[in-house]
Design a protein that fits this description.
Length: about 90
């Protein structure tokens, strides 16, 4: 996918999320978390993001994954080299 097309999609999705009401955003986050539960397996490694701005929270999914014995990680970008690493949640 070309960079400009990807940027346009990201902007479209960001605007759609920003236009959601508080209750609609809460319902959407709960639904997404529930849909992800089936992917949790004991001892698996799962990468999640920490929500910024209008992004939906995966906190419930991450907590459930930890309780079920999965290892959960967050992305970390090294400041000077901009290398992407994953650090324990």
């Amino acid at each position: 996918m070309p960079h400009t097309e990807k940027s346009a999609l990201r902007q479209q999705f960001r605007r759609a999320r920003q236009n959601m009401g508080k209750h609609e955003r809460t319902r959407a986050a709960r639904r997404i978390n529930r849909l992800l539960y089936r992917h949790i397996k004991r001892h698996t490694r799962i990468g999640v993001y920490w929500p910024i701005g209008s992004e939906l929270s995966l906190h419930d999914f991450a907590q459930t994954a930890l309780k079920r014995g999965a290892r959960v990680y967050l992305p970390y970008i090294e400041p000077h080299s901009l290398r992407l690493w994953f650090t324990p949640y």
